[in-house]
From TrEMBL:
Pfam families recorded: PDGF (PF00341), PDGF_N (PF04692)
Keyword RNA-binding: no
Function, in words: Growth factor that plays an essential role in the regulation of embryonic development, cell proliferation, cell migration, survival and chemotaxis. Potent mitogen for cells of mesenchymal origin. Required for normal proliferation and recruitment of pericytes and vascular smooth muscle cells in the central nervous system, skin, lung, heart and placenta. Required for normal blood vessel development, and for normal development of kidney glomeruli. Plays an important role in wound healing. Signaling is modulated by the formation of heterodimers with PDGFA.
GO cellular component: a single term: extracellular space
Molecular function GO labels: growth factor activity; platelet-derived growth factor receptor binding
Organism superkingdom: Eukaryota
Biased composition annotated in UniProt, kind: Basic residues: 192-206
Family: Belongs to the PDGF/VEGF growth factor family.
Lineage per the UniProt record: Eukaryota, Metazoa, Chordata, Craniata, Vertebrata
Keyword list, A-Z: Growth factor, Mitogen
Signal sequence bounds: none
SMART domains tied to this protein: PDGF
Organism the protein comes from: Manacus vitellinus (golden-collared manakin)
Name of the protein this chain belongs to: Platelet-derived growth factor subunit B
Domain Platelet-derived growth factor (PDGF) family profile intervals: 62-163
Length: 222
C-alpha cells in the first residue's frame, strides 16, 4: 500500500490546469508513466519460461495498447434528459397525460479533482416550452397546449463545498440546574431543615374557642 496523499497534491489537481495525463505528469514533475515490468521481457524468450504465461502477458499488453486514453470529464454544461412531471403542468389534476414526457436541458456536471469543491452553475437561464396536456373526455382525447418553464445552466465553475461545523448541544438552564450536584444538595438540605409541627400540637380551626387543653384533647380523641 502507498503512503497517504499529501494535501498539496489535492490543491494541484484542483487548480484547473490538469486536463490530461501529460498535464498531470508536468504538475507532478514526472518524466514518464511507469509501465508493467513484464513488458520488458516479452520480446526475449528465455529458457524454461512458461509459454502460457507469456501468451497471457502478450494479450494483456495488446489490450492495453488498443485501449484509448481516458479523458477528464471537466466541469461544463452537458445535455441531460429532464422528465416533465404532471405536477409541472397541472398540480390540481392527475387524470391526464403529458407529451412529450421528457426533454433535453443543459446542466452542469463534471469532476473538479478535489474533494472540497463541486461543479456548480454560476449562470442560469429559464426558457419556456409548449407541451401537450392530453385529457380523456367520454373516452375521447382532448389536447391542450400548456407552457412549462425549464431551467438551463449556462456557465459552470468548481466552487467550494460549504460544510457547516458540528453543533455542540448544550443543556438549557433547567437541565443544568437539574444536573448540578450543588443545586441538588442544597435543595435536599433545604427540605431537611423545614420541619412541620407535630399533628397533636396543631389546633383544629373548628375548636379555636376551646381554651382548656384537657377538654380539647378529650374532644379530639372522641
Amino acid at each position: 500500500q502507498g503512503d497517504p496523499i499529501p494535501e498539496d497534491i489535492y490543491e494541484i489537481l484542483g487548480g484547473g490546469s490538469v486536463r490530461s495525463i501529460s498535464d498531470l505528469q508536468r504538475a507532478l514533475r514526472i518524466d514518464s508513466v511507469e509501465e508493467d515490468s513484464s513488458s520488458l521481457t516479452l520480446n526475449a524468450t528465455q529458457p524454461g519460461e512458461n509459454p502460457v504465461a507469456l501468451s497471457r502477458e502478450r494479450r494483456s499488453l495488446d489490450a492495453l495498447a488498443a485501449a484509448e486514453t481516458a479523458v477528464l470529464a471537466e466541469c461544463k454544461t452537458r445535455e441531460v434528459v429532464f422528465e416533465i412531471s404532471r405536477n409541472m403542468v397541472d398540480s390540481t389534476n392527475a387524470n391526464f397525460v403529458v407529451w412529450p414526457p421528457c426533454v433535453e436541458v443543459q446542466r452542469c456536471s463534471g469532476c473538479c479533482n478535489n474533494r472540497n469543491v463541486q461543479c456548480r452553475p454560476t449562470q442560469i437561464r429559464v426558457r419556456h416550452v409548449q407541451v401537450n396536456k392530453i385529457e380523456f373526455v367520454q373516452r375521447k382525447p382532448k389536447f391542450k397546449k400548456v407552457v412549462v418553464p425549464l431551467e438551463d445552466h449556462v456557465q459552470c465553475r468548481c466552487e467550494a463545498v460549504f460544510r457547516p461545523p458540528p453543533r455542540n448541544i448544550r443543556p438549557g438552564p433547567r437541565e443544568q440546574r437539574r444536573l448540578s450536584p450543588s443545586f441538588t444538595t442544597a435543595a435536599v438540605s433545604q427540605r431537611q431543615r423545614v420541619r412541620r409541627p407535630p399533628a397533636q400540637k396543631r389546633k383544629h380551626k373548628k375548636y379555636k374557642h376551646v381554651n382548656d387543653k384537657k377538654v380539647l384533647k378529650e374532644i379530639l380523641i372522641a
